Amino acid sequence: MSMFLAIKSQCLFPYQSHFKNRPIELVLPQTFFPRFRNGPRHRNCILAKAEDKARENSDRQLEELTTSSGTCDPLCSVDETSSQEFEATYQPKTDFLKAFAILAAAVTGTIAINQSWVAANQDIAMALLFGVGYMGIIFEESLAFNKSGVGLLMAVSLWVIRSIGAPSNDIALSQLSHATAEVSEIVFFLLGAMTIVEIVDAHQGFKLVTDNITTRKPITLLWVVGFVTFFLSSILDNLTSTIVMVSLLRKLAPPSEYRKLLGAVVVIAANAGGAWTPIGDVTTTMLWIHGQISTLPTMKGLFLPSVVSLAVPLALLSLTSEVNGKGQNSAEVLASEQMAPRGQLVFAVGLGALVFVPVFKALTGLPPYMGMLLGLGVLWIITDAIHYGESERQRLKVPQALSRIDTQGALFFLGILLSVSSLEAAGILRELANYLDAHIPSTELIASSIGIVSAIIDNVPLVAATMGMYDLSSFPQDSEFWQLIAFCAGTGGSMLVIGSAAGVAFMGMEKVDFFWYLRKVSGFAFAGYAAGIVTYLAVHNLDISLPTALAQIPFLHGS
Fold first, then answer.
1. Rounded (10°) CA dihedral 431, 435, 436, 440
2. Dihedrals φ, ψ of 281, to 5°?
């Protein structure tokens, strides 16, 4: 029977309190040391070696702890900074802009209190309030006001003015109920989709996609990253796709100008990929839920323009010295988290739930958010079952995922959409549409202009306003106008780094400067945007009809 010798060393490690007063206990079989009985010299030698080994292991653990504490989680949206870096880089906000915004809001509120003036000048009061609120959203970084709070405050204030200016309170309540029902569909859809993606993300399910990218050749990697992001974003939202792919870039390339360009490609590809499917971007989802576009005609009409809007910037970037001039192939691969147990199952179910939503809508006729909630319910039950009794894996379950999703983003959409619906209820958007029709007769030019403006202003309120300005009687479902709106609002945000959620996430993760993106990428993104519009108009004018076999698929036709 083997005998074991316990060697206890009361070495105290001064590096961190984590190791203080913790004895290092090594249990070693005596048969491993046949000469241990020969004398104290061998005993001291073995003890010394054991202590040296313990110190080496402790040093390694300390290095891992200190390294992990200073790095960001592979799928986080921004890099964590130390308190010293925060104190060194922190600059106090200018109080003048804050004071001006608060003063403007107070003046607007004071005017709104005067009910007789509001009743006589409802349009002016609502336009003024919307302008002040939107300026607060645009300059949220300078003012240090969260845009979600500003959006909710603006929405409630606008509906208060609408209730004052409406012919009767019952009419205002009816309009508010109708607007709330429409907006709630989008919010429920987004909450369900974000939760499903978060669950898959927590299980590291996206490693099935990202781990298959093995090339390190600069030009090849540029194209592979672009098209992987393109197709990933067509199923996920562009923000999640950007976070996943930029995190992957940290494994594929060291910090450099080249990696920044790869990140910029991710932004362009995420926005282009989200434009051609109903679930790929918030704006296309809004248009799909409200009936302006349907599934198969949108995918058929916008796929080729979306590909062109990505391929043109990729081709131009391939000619730049930062990409074409790189002679070395990056072989440096950083470690990442392992996939959680049953991660492949969760990935398959989550992906299937997202793809099944259009099928569910076509089969049942129910709104898309019902299909999304169905998928979330199925995934909820599955994760509860596979992690039953595993207390250490609570973060992989839905309740923990709900605490990590972007709730403030959903509330921002709620505030914006309710604000725009109030302008629609007051008839302001219809008057704006009539003005545009009178002065800009070309619908293509209107849609293209909306895409360019979306590079500066958030595309969600732009599309929401467009939906309020033009109804289905003006432009029927799947008309050229609505498809161009979906494409332009989705891809136009790539022209500036602040023009989309994907760009803002990339800015935070890679610390990219606004003017760097303007110099290096904006021109290429605009070229892709223009080429995509030309491609759409060319294909649309050719009047390419659907293949008969595809047109007869019951769950795609007209869904």
1. 160
2. -150, 150
Any idea what DSSP says for residue 472? T
Give, as one character, the DSSP assignment of residue 326: -
Q: Which amino acid is at 211?
A: D
Q: Which of 507, 503, 496, 419 is nearest to 453 (CA)?
A: 496
pLDDT > 50? residue 12: no
Nearest-angstrom CA–CA distance, 458 and 527: 21
Q: What residues form DSSP beta bridges with 8?
A: 25
346 alpha-carbon distance from chain centroid: 20
Which residues are 7's β-sheet partners? 26
Burial of 459 (0-12, 13-18, 19+ CB in 10 A): buried
Supply the DSSP symbol for 205: T
- Give CA torsion, residues 41, 42, 44, 45, to 10 deg: 120
Helices 368-386, 169-202: crossing angle, 10 deg rounding? 40
Q: Which residues contact 517 (CB under 8 A, 6 or more apart)?
A: 264, 496, 497, 503, 507
| H/E segment holding residue 514 | helix 514-520
Kindly give, in sequence order, each residue whose CB lies less than 8 Å from that of residue 436, ignoring residues fewer than 6 positions away.
Answer: 446, 469
Q: How many other CB atoms are found less than 10 A from the CB of residue 290?
A: 18
Listed in sequence order, the DSSP H helices in 70-168 are 83-89, 95-113, 115-120, 122-138, 140-143, 147-165
pLDDT of res. 491: 92
State both tokens at 212.
Answer: 């298959």
Please state the length of the chain. Answer: 559
Dist CA 254 CA 234 (whole Å): 28
Place of tokens 């205002």: 172
Whole-number Cα distances in Å, 221 to 32, 207, 265: 51, 17, 11
Scan for tokens 């916008």, then name that residue: 302
Quick: pLDDT tens for 495-550: 988 778 788 778 767 878 778 888 999 999 999 999 999 999 998 887 654 444 44
Which two tokens mark 436? 């545009």
155, burial (CB in 10 Å: exposed 0-12, middle 13-18, buried 19+): buried
**Pick from 18-22, 186-190, 385-389, 393-397: least confident:** 18-22
Give me the DSSP letters along 337-395. Answer: PPPPTTHHHHHHHHHHHHHHHHHHHHHH---HHHHHHHHHHHHHHHHHHHTTT-GGGGG
| Cα–Cα dist 511/85, whole Å | 14
6 DSSP β-pair partners: 27
**Which stretches of 160-252 are assigned E, i.e. beta strand?**
none
C-alpha–C-alpha distance, residues 489 and 473, integer Å: 22
How far apart CA 188 and CA 201 sit, in angstroms, is 20
pTM: 0.61
The whole-angstrom separation of Cα 492 and Cα 475 is 22
Strands 4-9 and 24-29: antiparallel
Give phi and psi for 4, each to the nearest 5: -120, 140
CA pair distance 322, 524, nearest whole angstrom: 14
> Which amino acid would we find at residue 235?
I
